[in-house]
Structures
1.
Amino acid sequence: MHPYAFLAAGILSELVGTTALKLSDGFSKPLPTLGVFVGYGLAFYFVSLSLEELPLGLVYGTWAALGIVGVAAIGVAAFGERLDWPAVVGIALILGGVYCLNVLSDMSVH
């Protein structure tokens, strides 16, 4: 499997775990709490697989950045949270950083 596919699976798993964390209500709800552990466990597993072929800085930078952007999108879509202009600008800068790391930088696997 391609290392970027493992990284994508890790990011998606983290988004599931983080969403479940919000829904767990301080770990007082069993099913979302289970989702936290499964989501984060799978996230670390898939990220570890991507690290077999990709540089640490690229993997962690991409994982963290797209996790932030994804969680912000989930917050808006699922929980009615709002993004103000500084948040939108910040997200655009984060996405620009991911582009630089993965497309422009020599760190990436082209």
2.
Amino acid sequence: MRGHELGYLLRVSRCFDSYRRQQLKDVELYPALHLFVSHVCRHPGCAQEALGDALCVDKTTVAHHLARLEEKGYIERKPSPEDGRCRLVYPTEKATKLYPRLRAAYDAFYRGLLEDLCEEDRAQVERLGEMLYRNAKKLMQEL
């Protein structure tokens, strides 16, 4: 392995952040918070810990980002009825209204990113992406 293959993936990720920043520049949130709002809108009532696992973010960062989103009126956290120590995260109306714009920006980037790929290439990108993600998660668990 020459080492630059994964560099392309990292550059794509940075391009995605820049694209979102430009498309959503009038939104008061920075790109990392866009991901939180999107996830909570897709999974209302998700556990705070599960949110961190889904976004590959440590507990401290999750708590910090959720506090900021709560302060800005995008989410609310409630204790779980089954386990009072667990906090469940719900989108507010403000988040629900923003979500279609977030989704549209993501979809536009993805369409543009994949536009020159045939179905077979797209399937291979998905397969390889899943493998890389599994390996990355495994590496994180080993820390």
3.
Amino acid sequence: MTHCILLGAPMDEGQRRPGCLMGPAAYRVAGLAQTLVALNHTVEDRGDVLPGPAPAVTCVNPAVHHLPEMVAWTDALREAVADALPDGLPIVMGGDHALALGTVAGAAVHSRRQGRPLFVIWLDAHSDIHTVETTTSGNLHGTPMAYALGLGGFDPFPPFPHPVPGQNICMFGIRSVDPAEHAALQAIDITVNDMRVLDEQGIVAPLRAFLDRVQAANGMLHVSLDVDFLDPSIAPAVGTTVPGGATFREAHLVMELLHESGLVTSLDLVELNPFLDDRGRTAKLMVDLVGSLMGRKVFDRPTRSF
């Protein structure tokens, strides 16, 4: 039994398509808490995180938007996750992926206090390894991995509190990387399991290889699950769709393997935009995936009308 702590992050300032701020409400309506309770976990919903006043900050990149708001969100989410981790498994209900600027930082603070290394598995179509200085879109949801690595170019954000070594990061399901991100990935020792790797090797071998490293190091594992990790044919409620994503069964297999490892200590659910959904289809799928992560077996699937 795990004590699950729900934290809402109703934010969509990290990109330009409004709607992700409705994500936490959609997860609650889709029965996330009830799913966890049915699996014999305890649930504490701490409500939505509230950022403090946006500081008067600027940066050298004129493309960046909502910078003050994102600095405030990052501070608030770092503290919320660091405060929750001693009490259980925080599940952060987003919100766009810029929330991971704060959630991974909070996990890093806690892991350092525990004297254990932090590992991150990034389930996403995108590598999100731009910096505040290099982003051309100005969308800060494309920067969390670079921040977690401790790369430069993040003024005026506070320094990342204990940067995650590249070898402690696994990107899984990647299939949309621009040239600048490709160059950054080549310069850093990160495990990148793109869809070509998964097509050739399958899901199990690459994921188990990474999980074995986490276990051998007595590491803590932060999982960041982006809706666009999934193929848009099964998960339409995201503003950054990329064809060729994980299938229903592949996604559930990833979650089942993560559960069996017993290593997951914190979880992000990001980029759900209910405004783009079809009768809650994507929200329900994401909740079902959390169910698999928390112990639901393959033969326990609920029947759906679609």
